[in-house]
Amino acid sequence: MKFIGAGARPGQPQVHHDTVFTIPNLLTVVRFLGVPLFIWLVLWEQEYGYAALVLAVMGSTDWVDGYIARRFDQMSNLGRVMDPMADRLALIAVAVTLAVAGVVQWWYLAALLVPDAILLALSLFYFHGHPDLPVSRIGKVRTALLLVGTPLLVLSRVPIPGAEVYAVVAWICLGLGLAAHWIAGYNYFRAIIRKGRALRNKVDDDGLR
What we know:
By secondary structure, this protein is an all-alpha fold. It is built from 6 helices and no strands.
């Protein structure tokens, strides 16, 4: 079964519309709202089982909204920007929460933040905002691995049979996810520079005419 790019119709071009109120965008908002709920469950209630469930729901919406958008022609310009933004916010906020709770070490948070910080600075330098680049396949794999590994790691904190196995599988997913994160970051780094330089050259050429 095809998971990445599922719902796309072969031979049919994917067009982004200006529509705001779509089911995929609504699911992305739900993912945003899951972040404070997860933080409350972990830091205030120490309810790791429910927190893992929230992460599982958030992760499933990431796949479902993409499927619906491609399958039912609901891909929007807003969703193209908002969806990866929701992923980044969720992964970073969850990582900060788990670091504060002592579930992960601070190096894990740094490994997530450093590439994003570099890309953010580069995007602001060249575009003064979002670079509007398509999400790469390795970026999708990265997100999938982190969205699978993180709830498993949280679930391993619950005193249930097989918790140690969940922890091992979680760290395998997270380790591969971090490696993909840095590879994707490097690819985006090069893409931003190429697009930024091309844009500046075009502006300079237009100014000379």
